[in-house]
Amino acid sequence: MEFCDLKKQYEHLRTDIDSSISHVLIHGKFVGGPEILELENKLAEYVGVKNAIAVSSGTDALILSLMALGIGNGDYVITVPFTFVANVESVILNGAIPLFVDVNKDDFTIDINKLNELIKNPIDPNSGNPIEKNKIKAIIAVDLFGHIVDYNKINELIADKDIYLIEDAAQSFGSELLNRKACSFGDISITSFFPAKPFGCYGDGGMIFTDSNLISKRLMMLRDHGQEEKYTHKIIGTNSRMDTIQAAILLAKFNEFKSNEIKNRRKVVSCYIKNLKILEENGFIKLPIFDETNKSVYAQFSILINNRDRFLEFLKINLIPFAIHYPVPLHLQPAFSYLGYKKGDFPVSEELSKKIVSIPLDAYKTNDEINNVCDIIKRFFKS
Predict the structure, then answer these.
(1) How does DSSP classify residue 359?
(2) Cβ-based burial of 301 (10 A; exposed 0-12, middle 13-18, buried ≥19)
(3) Among 3, 32, 47, residue whose Cα is nearest residue 248
(4) Do both 197 and 338 map to the same domain?
(5) Domains in the chain: how many in total?
(6) Residue 1 domain-assigned?
């Protein structure tokens, strides 16, 4: 069994994908081809925002978003320690300083109460000194595993403050909160098309979404060496363009993704929860939230378990693939030790990192495969 079976997806969509790639090979516009604009327009319409800007990765989407907002040296950006490293990298690479807020135990997204405390009383963890409140320029909130953050509550906290809200929807493209799509909640929102994402390409790719025409124009220059027209560089930018072939692959996948794959991912998760609920009721595991108002696309299906090492060995013996998202929270990563955080600062993130296990999930898992995984997990607790 594959953890995420991209080969099965390709076999299902082979004709459309091959045709779309072939079209690019024939027209030869491998950078900036017409598929880029077509993808941007389709995804902006799907999400419900004015502008979508295709870029080379989700990480570049974060870096460019902060650049476009003018965030840099001496500024502070709030984010969470229980997520992928790109959040903190993007802040630091722009010269800014990350401030961490712990996540909540229910859906692993930013703890709104702790966020409120930090905004009211910001302290630099390295110096221990208060931070001037006007130095906090942005919040990067993460829709972890596809579960959308409660952005209404964040907006209430920052309504009278000059703080940008960036939605990191790298794992939530296709999710919905109260009939509103992920990637539509921030001043800027980003997503990733890494192959294993629910909607992925065959390499790296990302997208930035915004209703601001001014920010959109700046982002389009930033991704292309700061130029608005060739060899006229108005600002300092990067080479962060999406390849045309990746856009073509995404276009070939898009209709199936929105019409069937999201629905199928939710069916797989529903089947997992139905099968494993008894283990949660008996206190053996904790399952993810299955919320009909916050409709996750489930980038991962992650459970919490106390005796993880023995459980992982059992999965290995029984040939069940797994992943750990994430084994070391960001505030304890060696690269960020200079920030001044220490063990115990974010207890929820630290606890999650010791207990979390992600089990196989994609839109093409069969009932037999799911039942097999669940039977093996149940057998562990009987052993």
Answers:
(1) E
(2) buried
(3) 32
(4) no
(5) 2
(6) no
The span from the CA of 187 to the CA of 161, in Å, is 14
Q: Is residue 284 part of a domain?
A: yes
Task: Take residue 115 and report the two structure tokens written for it.
Answer: 């966020």
State the residue range of the domain holding 150.
6-252
- For residues 312 and 347, give the distance between their C-alpha atoms in angstroms, rounded to a whole number: 23
Q: How far is CA 74 from the centre of its chain?
A: 26
- Both tokens of 281, joined, read 């009721």
Nearest to 315 by CA among 360, 362, 363: 360
Tens of pLDDT, residues 177-200: 999 999 999 999 999 999 999 999
Pick from 162, 27, 166, 158: nearest CA to 86: 166
Q: CB neighbours (10 Å) of residue 106? A: 12
Q: Where are the beta strands (DSSP E) in the chain?
A: 51-55, 76-79, 97-100, 136-142, 164-168, 176-177, 180-181, 188-192, 206-210, 227-229, 232-233, 285-286, 294-295, 301-305, 356-359
The CA–CA distances, whole Å, from 249 to 21, 71, 289, 354 equal: 7, 33, 31, 37
DSSP state of 199: S
Residue 97, amino acid:
I
pLDDT for the residue numbered 17: 98
Contacts 24+ apart (CB under 8 A), 123-126: 124/97, 124/340, 125/99, 125/100, 125/339, 125/340, 125/341, 125/345, 126/338, 126/339, 126/340
206 and 321 in a single domain? The answer is no
Tens of pLDDT, residues 278-307:
999 999 999 998 788 899 999 999 999 999
Is pLDDT of 142 > 90? yes
DSSP secondary structure letter of residue 332: G
